[in-house]
Amino acid sequence: xxxxxxxxxxxxAVAWMALAATAGAADVNFxxxxxxxxxxxxxxxxxxxxxRIEGARHxxxxxxxxxxxxxxxPLMHAIVVVETVLDETGQVKQINVLRAPSHAPDxxxxxxxxxxxxxxxxxxxxxxxxxxxxxxxxxxxxxxxxDALSEGQRSE
Length: 156
Prior knowledge:
Elements: H1 2-22, H2 25-28, E1 42-43, H3 48-62, E2 78-86, E3 92-99, H4 105-117, E4 123-124, E5 130-138, E6 144-146
């Protein structure tokens, strides 16, 4: 039992060390490995608004350690707006960056990578292929909230 857990932990640690060796210090803050999913989910969302919330929950479940809990600070490090195109099975077909912070290209790259890594998204059974836009609000530590599930912002 201990041996099988070790084999699951070691590749993750090796991946982090390799990433740290090849990336700049600022890049490491924003790269993350998702928590393994229990398996494909089927969405029963009847409209895009409901599916956007399910997609955001899927991302939150995949990166629980990266979600900023509570109200966000008044100034965010980066805001990235992405349009994600999924096929009818929940596979990412395209990620279009609609707004990228020019001062933090590493954040934009990390957001794209995080979306790609959590494929497949819940299968949009009632909608077929879907395209939705999400705003990623990222603080300096690399933690984030998605606009669909945001808890708001502190005033000071």
